[in-house]
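Example 3.2
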Amino acid sequence: MKARLVLLLSLALLLGAGLRLDDLGGPSLWMDEGFTWMVASGPLSELPERVTLFDKHPPLHYAVARAALLVGGHSELWLRLPSALAGVLTIPVVFLLARQVGVSGAGAALLMAVGAMHVLVTRDGRGYGLATLCLALTFWLWARLLQRLRPPEVAGWFLAGVAALYTHYLAIVVLAWQWLLLVCGRPRQERARWLGIPALGLLVFSPWIPTMLRQAATPSPGHPPPAWSALLEVLYAQSVGFTLNFTPWRVPGLPSGLQNHAAWYTVVLIGTLALAFSWARGPLARRLLGVFVGTVVSLVVVSRLTGAGLYESKYTVLVSPAFWVLVACGATHLGRRFGRSAGLALLGFFLLLNLASSLNAVLLEEWHRQDLRGAAAYLARHARPGDRLLVVSGWALPALDFYAHQLPAMRVQPLGPRQVAAFGSDFQAGQRVWLLRASASLFDPRDRVLTRLRRTCPPPVHSWTAWRRNPDLVVDLKCFETPGTSQPGG
């Protein structure tokens, strides 16, 4: 039996590593990864200032990414490698968590290995992979503490929680639910002693609090409050890896009228297995379910009531270790034979989905990084020193800076919402003006800059577009010549 478990865990690790590391450095950096680059490319002494200027997350992932870049050099691969490796290391932790809860560790590890949302975000040069690994460790140690209290495991749970909080602020919601359910399970006379845990956590995190407050005071375009359907979208996104709001999954060959219904049928299947049937697995599974549901509901409710941008489906990857263990719990409760069949069917479905999105160009277009590297390469071929580059979306500037060594000397001018509103034709005669739009819908939803340039100038002499189904990921580049000189051929 032990040899079989080792074999299955090894298979899960191989699958997980293959899906997360294959062609890791191939795609272009996109805007969110550009923030990681701008923070991690500077010295650690400047990290608080840079992370306040360019991003809104705690420092631990940036410090790790900085170390990776120092080792491997200036490349997309080394910027993304820490998150991908953390994603692979999460798999054995989920194995241990499932065994602690009393279900198939191999089944949960295999499901975690091919879980599409986790694969998606751990191939990104962001902190979600490291934060999820740290929280997976807290889940495992927390489950052990629920059964038997040991001081070394209390210390380990606390330290893993601090690491998670120093990686992603929303880890505090997961940790708060863990702490609450842990304290509620202790005898009444012991509960007062557990009040010291959050107090000590606040003390350890206090050096970063001034930077966190400066980040909170920095304005940025926000996200609309989530609809109540976001509660079900979590189940869909965890399993299928895409969101219903922007990029609904499409089943090849299925009539378009049934596409969204197919997505929701997947939600019903996963939700039934993960939530309804996991309840009967025992008190540990019920408390794990409590943390999962409590975290998701808290993020959605607070976002709706306050308008704060706390909820995105990718943020809920932080509780994906609990999700896949709950799926394993549900499959196991259905009976040994049927449960194994259901688990194998899910495993095959998710593995096929991952492979299809990697090999099928149509599915790949559903969620793909912005091709800012392609835009930089086009500028390198066609731009001239002294050209003016207008960038609608300051969020794209950090990723563009990653490729700045390819570009000629240009005057770069970011256009935020204020600059877009006041934009005019203040150009010299014969000047070449490039317009780069990336996530422009957030900064220039009416496309005022492009409209004004088209009215003022002849048709573009150069044009390049990286087309995406998701409009937020389109990168569009055009070169205009203001009237006054002859136009070269495009």
